[in-house]
């Protein structure tokens, strides 16, 4: 096997170059750690080596962390604990090396990569945009397992360390320097030279590592046992409030960090290893790791089975419609360096659209995610027009006009007249079947759906909707371009509601029916956030807008009959002129800025039961809402709306916030068992006839004892 590490000596300085063969990133594994030990043995035994530099051979990655494939080999918590202990031993050797080691960081420095850097005597990072440092383990249901919970607090302070570990967020080089996470920031072109120079200076004793000085707040809260106890208590309270106890790794991470302040250093590392083992064996971690593999797999999916045609080049696009969705699409295209021709019917509309684009991009400038020059460059890529000038050479048009079939047909006809024959017409619609839109086209094989989610610049999912006529190169091109925009793309076959909105509909409808029965608004929302959704269904309805919900609901009812008939409550609230958050009047109260407050008690007078309340156990609310969604999701597999469970699970998690720790609706069926799901649905269907009849595929799976995914080993996605 070819080596991941090479070791050379220049003027008394050892250079450890990490370049994992045939891999885009550097990852730690048992074999790589074995190589590190060999190199560290050589450094320890060679008096000619005065200091060393750890540097990557990759152009934009330092070390991405551990090889997650290895986590799937753990048979139990003890296996994972042993792997953590092995990582501790390797990092300790770096920290205690006779010849001090300098970390030269360019590109992503994640997980075990940052833990290795923390063990080094000195850290230098480049100011390259791709240089980010993070401990993202909690996003996989794990905790840092190679010393991160022990070394990070001692490096940047307790509160800053807890924030990094519990959020998993990326820290850019400039902020890393301010916090003390790195000691120096340089241009990438001089990283190697500066690292060698600093190694020489450390070896000579002329450069000493200066620890970050604590401010007054840190001295009060962090540098004494009472203050630290307050910090840990607040961290636990905030974590439980946000996670509702559904993500045990967050509390385990706090416990591991706290162990580092009680007893010996060995105790802290031992507790980190033990807790890492427990989390690695947890069901939550297995589901979050599944999502990691699923999203990675999707990035390689062309969208077409068999021999897939190469995507067409899309150097520029046009966006029709300068409203909220159109502006969002234009914004993310400009962020990726794609020129956009932005069209609407009136100059005033175009002006508002351009202002909206500016606001979205400016937000990145304010948050220091881009420079002023990048802001100017991105904004200059979007040009507005009320004519079709410039459309003759555009390979892809994304239409985001009013949700009306006649309007979309008119725009399609006008646009096709000026487009080249090979151009793709992509429609952003959440309600109208793509087949119906394509019926107005002279080239229906060049028409496809691109269903973005609102707000476009924040929501990660993109549904690409294909019809029976869509040409394969149109699919591959649209999928590739969606990924270029930074979206997670799933392929969906054309159907009313597509996939995400179709499975969302029965979930929202069931919540509405409970309102009809007199269940309290906050009880429904609380039950579903406890189940793991980011917001409850009534809050979501207010966010989306009751008018939009009603329009979508009518389409779903027309397509799927009685089981999709809307509840009375939402219609009565809408009839009273309450549209939700956008009018600051819905089921909830909103202040002038649109921030949500408590339930608007006056809304109950509009509901069928008035002020009379009905209490339903929380688990029953959860079963009714969640199983209505799950049953519909299985129907979508049955009908071929999504090609495989992987796509549907990603769509549900990324599109509507299905609890990630449950993996998605199909993973949920496997976890609970199809037979148990069918029994629960049958009981509900007796209580609420016609709404919960288990679909044929679920019944068959229950009878045959089959699953959506293999029961053992690495997820097949």
Describe it.
This protein is of the alpha/beta class and 717 residues long. It has 3 domains: 277 residues, 2-enoyl-CoA Hydratase, Chain A, domain 1 (Alpha-Beta Complex), CATH 3.90.226.10; 177 residues, 3-Layer(aba) Sandwich (Rossmann fold), CATH 3.40.50.720; 205 residues, Orthogonal Bundle (N-(1-d-carboxylethyl)-l-norvaline Dehydrogenase, domain 2), CATH 1.10.1040.50. The chain has 29 helices and 20 strands. It has an 8-stranded mixed beta sheet with strand order 13-12-11-14-15-16-17-18, with helices on both faces. A 6-stranded mixed beta sheet has the order 1-2-3-5-7-10, with helices on both faces. β14, α17 and β15 form a beta-alpha-beta unit. α4 packs across α5, α11 runs antiparallel to α12 and α20 packs antiparallel against α25. The mean pLDDT is 93.
Present the secondary structure layout:
Elements: E1 5-10, E2 13-18, H1 30-45, E3 51-56, E4 61-63, H2 68-71, H3 77-95, E5 101-105, E6 108-110, H4 112-119, E7 122-126, E8 132-134, H5 148-156, H6 158-167, E9 171-172, H7 173-179, E10 184-186, H8 191-204, H9 216-221, H10 225-243, H11 248-259, H12 265-280, H13 283-298, E11 317-320, H14 324-335, E12 340-343, H15 347-366, H16 372-380, E13 382-385, E14 396-399, H17 405-416, E15 424-427, H18 434-438, E16 447-452, E17 461-466, H19 472-484, E18 488-493, H20 500-516, H21 521-531, H22 537-544, H23 546-560, H24 568-575, E19 588-590, E20 596-599, H25 618-638, H26 645-656, H27 665-672, H28 674-687, H29 696-704
Helix pairs in contact: 1-3, 3-4, 3-12, 4-5, 5-6, 6-10, 6-11, 10-11, 11-12, 13-26, 14-15, 15-16, 20-25, 20-26, 21-25, 25-27, 25-28, 28-29
